[in-house]
Amino acid sequence: MIDQDRTPHGRLSDFQSVRALSEQICEPLAVEDYGLQARVETSPLKWHLAHTTWFFETFVLKPFMPGYTPFHPGYEQLFNSYYNSLGNPYPRGQRHLLSRPTVAEVYDYRHTIDRQVLDLLDSSHCPPEALARIELGLHHEQQHQELMLTDLKYNLAQNPLWPCYREARHTPSETSGLRFLSQPGGVLWIGHDPAQGFAFDNEGPRHQVLVQPFALASRLITNGEYLEFIQDGGYSRPELWLADGWNQSLSQNWQHPLYWQRQGAQWLEFTLHGLQPLSPELPVTHISYYEADAFARWCGARLCTEFEWESVASQTAISRQGLDFAWLHPTAATAPATLHPLQLFGTTWQWTQSAYLPYPGYRATSGALGEYNGKFMCNQQVLRGSSCATPPGHSRASYRNFFYPHDRWQFTGIRLARDL
Description:
The chain has 420 residues and is of the alpha+beta class.
C-alpha cells in the first residue's frame, strides 16, 4: 500500500515495497514462463518487469539525477510501451521475440535502477517534481502488477496441461441473495477530491452531475446465474445483443465466459490455481462488455453508469483490498447486504454503460506523460471498482479503468442496475 507521506523518506519505503511485490509475483515462475505472450494485448512478464523499470529511468533518473548515464541505449525503444513522443516503441505484438535481454539481465536492470532511485530519494537534491513522478511510477507499477497476473493467466491457459501458478488455500462459500437497493440520485459531486491524495489525471476534474433515482444490485452476478443465461440460449438470441457484440460473438464463436470449458456434463473453469470445477456461488468473470450488456437485458435490467456506481461506492468502505496469493480468484458475497452493496471493490472490475470520455475541463498532463490516459479516450468502456488481482491500496471510488468492449482477459464482471 502506498503511503500518504509524500516526503522522500515516505516515498523510499513505498518504492521498496512496490518494487518487491512485482518480483514476488514472479517467484513461482520458471525461466520459460517469463517470455510467454499468447496474444497482442498481453505482454511477457519479463517485459512488464523491464517496462516498469524503464518508466523510472525515463521519467525520474534522466531528468533529475545529475550526470545520469542510461543503463542501455537500446532499452529506450525495447521497453517503451506507447509513448510515441519519446521515439518509436518496439512492436507490441512482438515482445515475445525478445529473448535478449535475458531474465537475469532484466533483473540486473531493475536492481541497478532501484539503487539509483533510492540514492536520489536519499539525497538532498530530490525536487518535488521528482517525488511526484516517483509516486506516479509506483501507481503505474501497481497497474502492471495486476496486468502481470491477468496476462500470465491468459498465457498459461493456452497450455493443455492447465498449469497451476500457485496452489489455492481457500474454500468457496455460499453466496447471499440478490437484491436491488434503491438509491436517491440527485445533483452529485463526481471525480477525485485532490485533498484525498493521489489520483490519475482521468479521475478529474471534480464536477457535478445529475443522477436520476435508481436501484443497484446488492452483489455481483454469479456463475450459476450466468449459466442460466447460457442454458436459456443467451448466446443465440440476437435481440439481447448490441449489433457489434452480436457480430463479435459470432466471429469469435463465444458460447460462455473466457475460461469456462465443458467436459461431459461438468463445467470447469481455468484459474491461476489450475483447472477447477465451476462453482455456481462465485462471481462470473472474464466476460466482455457485450456479454455483460446482453445478460442485463436478459434479466430485464441494465448496467449501471459510472456516475451511479461512484455515487454509491464513495459512501462505502473498501472492505476487501484485492490481491491475496492464497486465492487469486473472485470470492462469493457471503454476508447479507443491508444499506450498501457488496463486492464493490477487490472482486471483479465492473462494466458500466459509460463510454470512456474526458470529464468537463479535463486537460492531459503536458509532455510525454500526457500520453498516459488522455489519448485512449475513444471507443472504450469505463469499468469501476477493483479486482482480486488489484494490489492493496490501489482501489478508490473515483478510479476509472477502461477497456475495449470486446476484451475478456481481465477480471471483469457484472453489476446490475434498474431505473426507478
